[in-house]
Design a protein that fits this description.
- The protein is of the alpha/beta class.
- The chain has a single domain, classed as 3-Layer(aba) Sandwich (Rossmann fold).
- The protein contains seven helices and eight strands.
- It has an eight-stranded mixed sheet, sandwiched between helices.
- It is globular.
């Protein structure tokens, strides 16, 4: 972890604690934040969940204890609020376990909630004594609702229709999204990652070309990689050295999926 940084540059990522790193970013600098913060559960990065081969999953996933989760969340969100432009927005992903701490911190920091989106994926972990969790929450928030950027017809024209005659742009903007997880069989991967389809959708609705898109918890680098492919500027932090190196390799080589070396 680099604690000697004096300046943060755009179109770079850093192996850095994000709260320390954000203190080096000037206020009102960021156009859009998309992030999936660490869990507050006993998550084992090497466990072969979701049919993963554990030898191909990079180790080192950084966890926050449940008792510390609100304070941790309030700290990083406060920095995001400072560096976000008045016209900017943030999308925060969360499981149900730590959702209440995230909602509380968003309110306490001063964000305005715009939408609460549900991402429904194809399947969750099989359970015996409770219902299967097969969705994720996405909180869409902003700093100033009157200045917030949103492009309602960036993906579909106003009059475009589905095969059954429904409005395509209306359907695309409903707040329950059925989007499959990505399974990178045989490739290097981090334990969790957002599908590129979700990131692309958020970028197209809430940013323009050359906007600065920021992720304080980069992981595999998905947000930065997809942002770069859509001609957005990117910036991010990742505290785990193995994940940082993996994300940097993807960005430096413009490679979406990296084959696991033998």
């Amino acid at each position: 972890m680099n604690l000697k940084l004096k300046k943060i540059e755009i179109n770079k990522i850093y192996n850095q604690n994000c709260i320390e790193g954000m203190s080096l970013i000037p206020k009102n600098k960021i156009d859009l934040v998309i992030t999936d913060p660490p869990f507050a559960i006993n998550f084992k990065a090497k466990k072969a969940n979701y049919n993963r081969t554990s030898s191909r999953v990079l180790s080192g996933y950084n966890e926050i204890l449940p008792k510390d989760y609100y304070d941790f969340t309030f700290a990083w969100m406060s920095e995001v609020f400072r560096i976000l432009k008045d016209s900017g927005s943030m999308y925060v992903f969360s499981g149900w376990n730590n959702l209440k701490d995230i909602l509380r911190a968003l309110d306490d920091v001063g964000f305005t909630t715009v939408n609460h989106v549900i991402w429904k994926y194809q399947f969750g972990v099989v359970t015996k004594k409770k219902f299967v969790t097969s969705h994720y929450h996405c909180l869409y928030v902003c700093k100033d609702d009157k200045k917030r950027k949103f492009f309602p017809f960036s993906r579909f024209e106003k009059d475009e229709k589905t095969d059954d005659g429904r409005s395509l742009h209306y359907k695309d903007k409903e707040d329950v999204w059925n989007i499959k997880r990505e399974y990178w069989t045989g490739d290097e991967k981090t334990p969790t990652k957002l599908p590129s389809e979700i990131i692309k959708k958020l970028l197209e609705y809430s940013s323009e070309k050359n906007d600065v898109v920021f992720d304080p918890f980069l992981g595999s680098g998905q947000v930065a990689v997809v942002s770069k492919s859509l001609k957005r500027k990117f910036l991010g932090f990742e505290i785990v050295p193995e994940y940082y190196k993996f994300a940097k390799k993807r960005l430096d080589t413009d490679t979406y999926r990296i084959k696991k070396s033998k």
